[in-house]
Amino acid sequence: MQKNRSEKYHKILTSAGDVFARFGFYKATISQIASQAGVADGTLYLYFKNKDDILYQFISYKTAVVFEKMNTAVATGKTAEEKLRNLIHCHLQEFQNDKNMAVIFQSEVRYLRDIQSQIKDISKMYLDLLSDIIEQGQIEGSMRQDLFVGLVKRFILGAVEGVISTWVSAEGRYDLVAMADPLVDLYLNGVRGGINSI
Amino acid sequence: MQKNRSEKYHKILTSAGDVFARFGFYKATISQIASQAGVADGTLYLYFKNKDDILYQFISYKTAVVFEKMNTAVATGKTAEEKLRNLIHCHLQEFQNDKNMAVIFQSEVRYLRDIQSQIKDISKMYLDLLSDIIEQGQIEGSMRQDLFVGLVKRFILGAVEGVISTWVSAEGRYDLVAMADPLVDLYLNGVRGGINSI
DNA sequence: TTAGATAATGAATTATTATTCATTCCAGCG
DNA sequence: CGCTGGAATGAATAATAATTCATTATCTAA
């Protein structure tokens, strides 16, 4: 098995992304991936241990890239609200730019759960970023003190994922990033938005 | 293939639920399901067309049951807020009561998407319920007029699913239903909860 | 009690694919 | 030009599991 991350290695990973997104991990075959990448079946085994390893590498790689970008996005903001907005914006942007990744992260939930111990998984790090943001917001006084942080962060992540999921189902026919501001508005103000309830 | 919904039919479906939840659809084997149900492998084929059909029937059945209950829950409420609260409460209650269902609905996203045309799927009907509630809230004046309903309903469903997902990952070690009120509070008031901005 | 029908069994069959590895290709070098 | 070692090939192999069906068990009604 080759060690270096050659051009061919990336070609195969990209093709695997296409095929996994299209057919799902289990229905995808090695032959499909190989022919999509323009190499022979056996060649995949020069670069990857087995079929599982291809998915594993795909996820690790994408996770690392997105992780990096999200961290930067958050660091760019000053207030908690800015940080939250930047994070959501970045999230939607990255997933819109890479629909295969979006589909695979949605579809292979089971696999993601199974490897969650070996990998710094994306949900975990996302939830940690959110914890920090919320705590900062509470200190600043821009967010309520009576929040149960464990719930709030899950609430926020779940909602973005839901929005992405709908976008994926719609075959990506509209601008996902345009949802960022309305979404953040909902996080901050809710559907009541300060209307008096007696 | 038997037509009537005998006791054995349900025994097999329940066992399949256990096995699918535990191993995922693709890694689960017919033999596992059969032995769990205390019947021979061949017997499954007297009740189901094939392996896919078992998952299909499982999902159809659970969807129908939950659909019914959610409708009732919503109908019981009077105001939009009551309806929303009842819906979320019912949702969390049903999934807490049937962890296998919760796991399968989370894990087999891909399969769910693929059969979404043949089946009155649970997300679709859920989103429709939410649309009605939000519109009612706007008419009542208890919800903002400037909401993009398409986004709001996705936001709400995504957040509940996220909360359930965390609960599943935690092996169901805490009371899921207790999350209902804090969650609804977040939907209505957001994390700012009326704290002045600016 | 038993003939006929119905249900259940599980070993054998079949189909599918991941994986291996003997062979071929090819780039760089003396 | 040959030679050599690493890279690539793809047909053959192996393993897994879904599905079938000849056989056996169980039930029902006369």
Describe this structure in words.
Two copies of one chain form a homodimer. Chain A is an all-alpha fold. Chain A has two domains: 1-48, Orthogonal Bundle (Arc Repressor Mutant, subunit A), CATH 1.10.10.60; 51-189, Tetracycline Repressor, domain 2. Helix content of chain A is 72%, strand content 0%. Chain A has helices at residues 7-23, 30-37, 41-47, 51-76, 80-97, 99-107, 109-115, 122-140, 149-169, 180-189. The longest helix of chain A has 26 residues, at 51-76. The model of chain A has no long low-confidence stretch (mean pLDDT 93). At the A-B interface, helix 7, helix 9 and helix 10 of A face helix 7, helix 9 and helix 10 of B. Chain A binds a DNA duplex (30 and 30 nucleotides) through helix 3.
What is the first-to-last residue Cα distance of chain A? 69 Å
The assigned structural class of chain A equals: mainly alpha
* CATH-derived architecture of the largest domain in chain A: Orthogonal Bundle
Measured as a percent range, the helix fraction of chain A is over 70%
What is the gist of this entry?
Chain A has 198 residues and is an all-alpha fold.
Any key phrases for this structure?
72% helix, Arc Repressor Mutant, subunit A, homodimer, Tetracycline Repressor, domain 2, mainly alpha
Write the layout of secondary structure elements.
Two copies of one chain form a homodimer.
Chain A: H1 7-23, H2 30-37, H3 41-47, H4 51-76, H5 80-97, H6 99-107, H7 109-115, H8 122-140, H9 149-169, H10 180-189
Helix pairs in contact in A: 1-2, 1-4, 1-6, 2-3, 4-5, 4-8, 5-8, 5-10, 6-9, 8-9
The first copy, chain A, binds a DNA duplex (30 and 30 nucleotides) through residues 2, 29-31, 39-46, 50-51.
